[in-house]
Amino acid sequence: MSGARALDGVEVTVDREAVVVRARAPLTVVSSALVGGGLARARAIVNLHVPKDLIEADAEARLARFAGRRGLPAPWVGLLTSAWTEKAEVARASGGGLHALAVVTVGLSNRVAAGATMEEAAVLANFAAGIVVGKFGPATVTAQELTSSF
Fold it and tell me: What are phi and psi of 33, to 5 degrees?
């Protein structure tokens, strides 16, 4: 298991079971998470490795058991991936008093970012965040919106 301080008050742990982001204070999170998705406040974010044939009805319970076992502080956001979580990469960027953190696994269904370097993925995440904050309420970004923002 590897743990690293990514930003002041934020720690990222990467291992075979999951990628976990923990924060001393609640973070503003924009995600497509199964638990806590959309625009949310969270003290922890988990991207749990699951088998490709996971039965979706078990997903929320599996995330809750993991959060309990790891002692994740509430509220938390929970995602699932069949990607190798131990190969996740962490990138951070700061500017103008804002700080961003991107934790990237493999997203083969994401045609926009597949094959991108960490720096390119961080730029894409920044553009996506810029689009989302311009929308009302919980929002997502389409590949078309992202590619037309360049």
Answer: -60, 150
Q: Residue 35 in contact with residue 76, Cβ under 8 Å?
A: yes
Maximum CA pair distance of the chain? 44
Average pLDDT, the chain: 79
**What distances in angstroms separate CA 5 from CA 61, 86, 88, one per listed residue?**
29, 17, 15
Residue range(s) defining the domain that contains residue 113: 2-148
Q: Which of 28-32, 68-72, 106-110 has the lowest mean pLDDT?
A: 106-110
Q: How many angstroms from the chain centroid is the CA of residue 134?
A: 20
Expressed in angstroms, the distance from the first to the final Cα of the chain is 37
What integer pLDDT is reported at residue 134 of this predicted model? 78
| Calpha distance 100→91 (Å, rounded) | 8
Number of CB atoms found within 10 A of residue 46's CB:
26
The residue among 9 and 2 whose pLDDT is bigger is 9
Once rounded to an integer, what is the mean pLDDT over residues 110-128? 64
**Residue 111 neighbours by CB distance under 10 Å:** 10
Is the CB of residue 123 less than 8 Å from the CB of residue 91?
Answer: no
Question: Do the Cβ atoms of 19 and 47 come closer than 8 Å?
Answer: yes
Number of domains in the chain: 1
Helix or strand holding residue 100 (H, E)? strand 98-104
